[in-house]
Amino acid sequence: MxxxxxxxxxxxxxxxxxxxxxxxxxxxxxxxxLVPFRQQRMSGIVVELHDRPPHENASHIRIKRxxxxxxxxxxxxxxxxxxxxxxxxxxxAPVGEVFRTMLPLSAEFKRAVTYRITDExxxxxxxxxxxxxxxxxxxxxxxxxxEFRVLDYLAERESVREESLRxxxxxxxxxxxxxxxxxxxxxxxxxxxxxxxxxxxVAMLIRAEERAEASPPPDGPDxxxxxxxxxxxxxxxxxxxxQRALIDTLAAAGxxxxxxxxxxxxxxxxxxxxLVRRGLVGLLDEPQDFTASKLTPRQSxxxxxxxxxxxxxxxxxxxxxxxxxxxxxxxxxxxxSGKTAVYLACMRQVLDEGRSSILLVPEIGLTPAVAADLHQxxxxxxxxxHSGLSNAERAEQWHRIRRGEARVVAGxxxxxxxxxxxxxxxxxxxxxxxxxxQEETPRYHARDVAVMRAKMADAVVVLGSATPSLxxxxxxxxSKYALIELPDxxxxxxxxxxxxxxxxxxxxxTGEEQVVSRKLAAEIRERLEKKEQxxxxxxxxxxxxxxxxxxxxxxxQCENCxxxxxxxxxxxxxxxxxxxxxxxxxxKCAHCGSEYVYFVGTGSEKLEELLHGMFPQARIGRLxxxxxxxxxxxxxxxxxxxxxxxxxxxxxxxxxxxxxxxGVTLVGVIGADMALGLPDFRAAERTFQxxxxxxxxxxxxxxxxxxxxxxxxxxxYAVQFAAQHDFAGFYEKELxxxxxxxxxxxxxxxxxxxxSEKLEExxxxxxxxxxxFEKTRHExxxxxxxxxxxxxxxxxxxxYHFILKSPSRxxxxxxxxxxxxxxxARKIPRTQVIVDVDAVWLM
Length: 843
Ligand SMILES: [Zn+2]
Ligand SMILES: [Zn+2]
Prior knowledge:
It is built from 24 helices and 34 strands. The chain is of the alpha/beta class.
C-alpha cells in the first residue's frame, strides 16, 4: 500500500492535501476518507495514492494521518474523477468543492462534537498522580476534581462524544472550554460517517458460489451493513415447505425483498432466521426507495403514432448511440412537436440494450407530467432526482443508481453527475434554460458538462429545445452538432395565432394605465363563455413591485440589497426577492416621513385579484413561488386545470414550462417585454424564448389556440419574431448583434466579481485588480471594468465587476488563473473573488 494519499477537500482553496495512510488502512482512489483539517474532521475524495513525502525540506512537520477510509470501492469512478478535474479547470473552481457537488452524500454525515486528551493533558494527569494532589490552580478544588475526572475518562479512550463525556464525567460546557484553552483536551467538530437515511431491512438470497467464497459485499461504496451473514461453506440440507416458499419468493423477485414484504407469505417469522443461520439468506439494511409521483395517470405518451419527423429523429439518435462513440445532436422541435415522446423512446431503446441514459430537465418539480410519464414507461428502473428531495432521499437515489438498479436517471442540473454504468445517452431538455447554470461555486453549466461527459464516455448527447440557445444553434450550423428538426406540431395541429397589443395606444385611447387590455379582456370573456381555458402570464410575483414616496420620490429598498422590496398583500409584508429579507408594510416614507407612500406596479398576486374583479364567475388559480411551496401544490394546480376544475390560471414563468394542458385555447402575456429593459446582453434572447414557450401552451388540444402579447415595445425584434414563430429570423438578427458586440457565441465571456460587506474593501480590491489587468499583457482579451455591478449591493455585499471577452478560451482562462494568483498574493479572500466563466447573468 502506498504511504500517502492526496485528498481533495471541500474548502475554497485551489489545492489538494497530502495525508499519511496508517498501517492496515486501504483507501481507494475516488473513495471518501475522513481526515483532520484545521479544527475539524472532514470527508474528502482521494485523488492519488503515492509514496512521495510532502515538503522534503520541512520533514520536521508531522504529516497528519487519514482517520478513516469510508469507501471500499470508489464513490467517483475514473470517468467522474476526470470530469470533476475538467470542471475545476474550466470553471476555475476548487476541485474539492467540485467533487462535493458531484457526490450528494452529505446526509451520510452527522455532525458531532468530540473531545480527546492531549499530551499536555496526560502530563497534567501524570503529575497529579505523582504529587497526590491536582496541579496548582486558582480554581476551586471542586472544579479541579471534575477536570481530573474528565482527563481520567479521556485517557482511557480514543475520542469521546460531548454528550457521553458530559454524562460520564458530570462536567459542564464552560469547564470543558477552560480545559480546551489550557490545551489539556482538544475539541473536534466531527462529521461522522453515519447513515441517517431511512433504512429498510432487506432479505437477500445468497447464491451458492457466494456461499463458497464468503465474499465481501458486492460493488459500490459499501453502505450496506451486513448484519448477519452466516459463515460460508454450510451445505444446504433439504428445505421444508416454509423455507422453500421463502426462497422461491426471493428468487422470483430477483434475489432481494424487503423483510416487511415477506410478511404476507404466512410463514413463521423463525423461518427467515433459520435460513439466515444456514447461510442461504443474508439480511442487510438499505436506503428506502423513493415514492412515485402522485400525479393523476395520463394517457401513455406512446398512444399516438409517431410522425415521420419523430421517427426520423428517433432513427438518427438510435444510430448515433449504436456507433458507441461521441455524438452531439441538437433536436430543434417547435412547441407541441412531441420532443418528450422522442426522448422517452430513445431512452427505452437504450435501456433495452442494457445500457444507461440520463435526462436533464430544468425543473422537474415543475414538470410533474414528465415524471409521471417516466414512471409509466420505466417503472422502477427510473431514478428521479429533483430539488424537492431531502439530502437523505438524494443519497438513496444515488445508491440505487450506483448499484445499477436504476439505469434511467432523470433530474435537474446535478443529475448530470449520476453514477450510472455504461452511459449511452444524455438528453438535455430545454437546453437554453438558465437554471442549468449553477450560480454558486462551482459555477458549472450542466448542458456543457453533459457534452463533456458524453465525450469522455463515448456517449451521445442530445440537446433539445423549441428555442435553442444562440450558442447551441450556432454550433449546429457550424456542424459541431447534427441538427434534427421537428418542424410541425403533432397531428398537424396549427401553431397559435399571435396578436400584439400596443399598450402605448391602449393608454392613449383609454386615458389610463391598463393592466389587462380591452382586447385581452374580450378574448378571455369569449373563452370563458365557450368553457375553454385561459392562461395569463405575468413574470413577476407579489402584489406590487415598488413602494414609492410621492413627496421625496424615493422607493423602499431592501436593507441588504440595492433593490426595491415587493409588497405581498395576502401575507401582509414587504419582501426582497433577492435575499428573502422581510419587513412590515410602511405607513410612511422611511426617508422623509411623508405619509404619501404609493404602491406601484402589478405582480401576479394583484393580477389574480384584478381578474377576479373582472370575471367574478370564473374559477381562477395562481401558480408562482408564493402559491407553490412544494411539488404537491404544483401538481394540485395543474391537475385542477387538466381536469377542468379551473377556468383561468395566472402565473409567472412557471406556467410557461412544458405543460401539456389540452383545454387551454388562449394565452395572455402581460408585460411581454419586461426583461428587455435589463442591462444584460441576453435580454432579447430570454424574452424571445419566454414568449415562444408560453405561446406554445395554447392550442395543444383539438381547438386551435390564440396568444395575446401586451407590450410597450411592439417593434422590438424579440417580440416581432416571437409573434411570427420565426426562430431562424430571430437567430440571424441576434447573431449580428452578438458578433458586433463580441458576445457569445463569438467570444468566450467571464464575469469577475469582487464583493465585500465593506464598500471600501470592494473598491480597493477592484481597483487593485483593475490596475493589474491594465499592466498585464493579454492580447485579444477585452477587459471591461472595474464597474459597479448592475445590482450594486446584494445580500449585504457591495459588488464591483469586470467582464472579460475573448475569442480564445484558453487565453482567457490563463489570464483568469493569473488574476486569481494575484488576488491571493494581495490577500483578497478567495471567497470574495467570484469568477464566473460563461456567465449567464451579468447582474
Ligand atoms: Zn419620502
Ligand atoms: Zn435583499
